[in-house]
Design a protein that fits this description.
Distance between the termini: 145 Å
Helix content: 25-40%
Low-confidence stretches: 126-132, 732-738
Radius of gyration: 49 Å
Largest sheet: 6 strands, antiparallel
Structural class: alpha+beta
Strand content: 25-35%
Mean pLDDT: 84
Oligomer: single chain
Number of helices: 18
Strand order of the largest sheet: 14-15-24-23-20-21
Length: about 775
């Protein structure tokens, strides 16, 4: 204390602690003797500075930097001086400023709770629903839902008991009077202690992280859409993945509606205004929800009214409908029960717009106590819809290409079943589950002259339409060469030459992609023998009538893309009623299994499934279902042929002597045999055909020669000699004595031809047998 002359008249114990001078040493002394930097004489001063900073002398000779504050004592002329070391004052001022700033943050609530967790002091509870802060004397349960309040109080009680602070504990809470309004709080708490170190309460900081959490969730949702949507090229799986991502992260219910044309891979028509938009529901989430009767997967979206918000949607905007607006859009209250989920209060509709096309719409409903949509969520939905539309459009374009490839492949394949004198056949084809949808696998069953049957299985390198186109060219070439009745090894050699030419014609980058494997087999029901050759193709499996099955042992040649290496024909005997199975490698490649294991599985399955009482097409489909993965890595093709035999009584053969007189004898043989068969209406034409063919064999051929007649739906007449020269059909002049033989045969027979074997040739003709009904 100073009097009006600046003399020390009072000195506290803390002043002695600060300066080292006791009260007796300073009483009655001018204050200027204690201050080193006081520039004026304080005696007679009428106005003392209210605050300032000076240096005080210490008894030990040092100085002390202090900050002071003065105030006049009422009823006295004395002045009270309060001083403290400047660093302490600065710390106090900074701390106070910090506390004031912290308390002023509207997203940070500071609460001091006593030992029973009653609020002793707080700045405010942010955004309380009743309009006021958490008042002193109240508990958290007065503001928060009971469950959330109990959870936070359990944490505070643990801090109070253990003294271990809690830092940044995330807590989701709901207001007691507004349960739908959820907050994300970050809780930090530490124990308060009295001077003796006993627990005096808990200080808690509640930081509102709702906006940050919402931003993180929106970012996570965008990332999840990027990861999960677009990973499939199937339209249905793409839209279902998009709907699943949105629930519950974005809304309570979600649906994706697509234009009907999109399901088929086509481009949707542009439509403006209300009416039938030709949209069909493609996905719902969650699928287990109780949906209204009108909202079911596959249902058409009802005609919509010409609402202003609909026009905004059709111009590419994401729009939010209130319940009343949405009811008006779908046609009024009478349709609300069918097309509006229960307790809906907000609907967001976003167009799926890509490459100038509106493919459909995303519809998200919020129901019950959930919060309304925000502007940020509208922007996020716009981004999600844009990414989803691109994924759907990619799937749509793939669907179109896949359908085109499949249509081409199916058109190029032969009928699934055939029934010929040599065998009944059934072919099944399963396209790959990935890539462009087809790999160019094919099968074929080609009827040949003399009741024989050619069986083909092939696999083209590559996928999609190029592979299907190559397959079509190879199949046409094989059918053409098969009509020439070449041996299997010679036919494959010529096909290999064709593949080389196709590779040379292909663009430079596609040379290595041109190639194929092929198995070609010819079965003769008269001799009951099958000749076959392989160009890098898996061997066939033979199932005998007794149920035993084995892989045919043949030596495969190189694939068709490789020229210069020979092919080898293998001939086996086949009992009637046996099943010969030709296939492509997609049927024996399954997962990581070895090809040998796959072939053994196929052989065992054929032995079990190929029963005489079971239709071949049923057997083929069942085998594909059992042996092929759900999403096969390659095409799978299977051709089953159940062999038949021409009975011995339906064939006749004679050796022809090298004598012109044998022509009349051959006519007698043929007449006698046709009479025995009851084919009287073919006697005249057959005599002429036999006469001309035998005459040519004796005149131009080499012995030995043979005449053979076959009866099975058609009458086949064959003459074989040892001269490999190709006969030639020509037009004889009016003065020529010969040259009309083959011309007459061509006129009398339905068809005729010549095939070559090793060191022999056979000229044949066919005449239809007309049965009386």
């Amino acid at each position: 204390m100073l009097d009006d002359q600046g003399t020390v008249v009072g000195w506290s114990g803390t002043a002695q602690d600060l300066t080292g001078f006791c009260a007796d040493e300073v009483h009655g002394r001018p204050v200027q003797e204690l201050v080193t930097d006081l520039s004026h004489d304080p005696r007679g001063v009428t106005q003392w500075p209210t605050t300032g900073r000076v240096r005080l002398r210490h008894r030990c000779g040092n100085t002390i930097d202090v900050t002071f504050r003065t105030t006049r004592v009422s009823g006295s002329a004395g002045v009270l001086v309060l001083a403290a070391p400047t660093p302490h004052v600065a710390d106090h001022q900074h701390g106070a400023a910090f506390l004031r700033a912290l308390s002023a943050q509207n997203r940070i609530t500071i609460a001091l709770h006593d030992t029973d967790l009653t609020t002793a002091q707080t700045n405010a509870m942010p955004d309380s629903p009743d309009g006021g802060p958490l008042q002193p004397g109240a508990r958290l349960g007065d503001v928060l839902c009971a469950e959330d309040a109990g959870s936070i109080e359990a944490v505070l009680r643990q801090v109070l008991e253990t003294g271990v602070p809690v830092i940044h504990r995330n807590q989701r809470v709901s207001w007691r009077h507004h349960p739908a309004r959820r907050l994300a709080l970050s809780l930090s708490a530490f124990r308060l202690e009295d001077a003796r170190g006993r627990p005096a309460g808990v200080a808690a900081l509640y930081i509102d992280d709702t906006d940050q959490l919402r931003a993180r969730r929106q970012l996570d949702l965008a990332h999840e859409v990027a990861e999960r949507v677009g990973g499939s090229l199937d339209v249905a799986r793409t839209v279902q993945g998009l709907a699943d991502v949105l629930v519950p992260a974005f809304g309570d219910l979600a649906a994706v509606d697509l234009a009907e044309a999109v399901f088929d891979g086509d481009e949707p028509a542009e439509r403006k205004g209300g009416g039938d938009l030709h949209l069909r529901n493609a996905a719902l989430a969650p699928t287990t929800a109780v949906w209204p009767s009108g909202i079911q997967r596959g249902n058409l979206v009802p005609p919509l009214s010409d609402h202003p918000l609909l026009l905004r949607f059709q111009h590419g905007e994401t729009v939010v409908y209130g319940r009343d607006d949405y009811v008006a859009l779908i046609g009024g209250p009478q349709l609300a029960e069918q097309f509006l989920p229960h307790d809906t209060h907000a609907v967001m509709v976003a167009p799926l717009h890509a490459r100038g096309l509106t493919l459909g719409a995303i519809v998200v409903w919020r129901t019950g106590p959930s919060e309304p949509f925000t502007a940020d969520e509208v922007d996020l939905m716009r981004q999600i819809a844009s990414r989803g539309a691109l994924a759907i459009d990619n799937a749509r374009r793939y669907t179109r290409e896949h359908r085109a490839a499949m249509a081409l492949q199916q058109r190029l394949l032969p009928p699934a079943t055939t029934d010929t004198p040599a065998a009944e056949t059934a072919g099944v084809y399963l396209p790959t589950g990935r890539g462009a949808g087809t790999s160019g696998d094919w099968y074929d069953a080609i009827p040949l002259p003399s009741l024989r049957l050619a069986l083909v299985a092939g696999d083209v390198i590559g996928h999609g339409i190029p592979a299907s186109a190559t397959m079509g060219r190879l199949r046409a070439a094989i059918q053409t060469l098969a009509d020439l009745e070449l041996e299997p090894d010679e036919l494959l050699t010529r096909i290999a030459d064709l593949v080389q030419r196709l590779a040379a014609e292909a663009p430079p980058g596609d040379h290595d992609a041109m190639g194929a494997t092929c198995l070609y087999a010819v079965y003769d029901p008269v001799t009951r023998r099958c000749a076959m050759a392989s160009a890098g193709h898996p061997p066939p499996v033979l199932v005998r009538p007794d149920g035993s099955a084995e892989t045919v042992d043949l030596l495969p040649g190189p694939p068709l893309a490789v020229c210069g290496l020979p092919y080898e024909t293998t001939t086996i005997d086949i009992e009637p009623g046996s099943v010969l199975a030709l296939y492509t490698d997609g049927l024996i490649h399954r997962g990581a299994h070895d090809v040998g294991d796959g072939l053994r599985r196929l052989t065992d399955a054929l032995a079990i499934s190929c029963r005489p009482d079971r239709a071949l097409d049923d057997t083929g489909r069942a085998l594909l279902d059992d042996l092929v993965d759900q999403a096969p890595r390659d095409d799978a093709t299977l051709l089953l042929a159940r062999t038949r035999a021409v009975p011995a009584e339906d064939t006749a053969r004679w050796q022809i002597p090298a004598d012109p007189a044998a022509v009349s004898q051959a006519r007698e043989w043929a007449t006698r045999q046709l009479t025995a068969w009851g084919l009287h209406d073919l006697l005249f034409t057959t005599e002429l055909i036999v006469s001309e063919l035998v005459t040519n064999a004796i005149r131009y051929g080499r012995p030995p020669a043979e005449l053979r007649l076959l009866r099975h739906g058609v009458l086949v007449c064959e003459v074989t000699d040892s001269n490999s020269a190709q006969p030639r059909l020509r037009r004889a002049r009016t003065t020529d004595e010969g040259g009309r033989g083959l011309f007459l045969v061509a006129q009398l027979a339905e068809r005729w031809g010549c095939r070559h074997g090793q060191n022999h040739k056979t000229i044949w003709s066919e005449q239809p047998i007309v049965r009386a009904h």
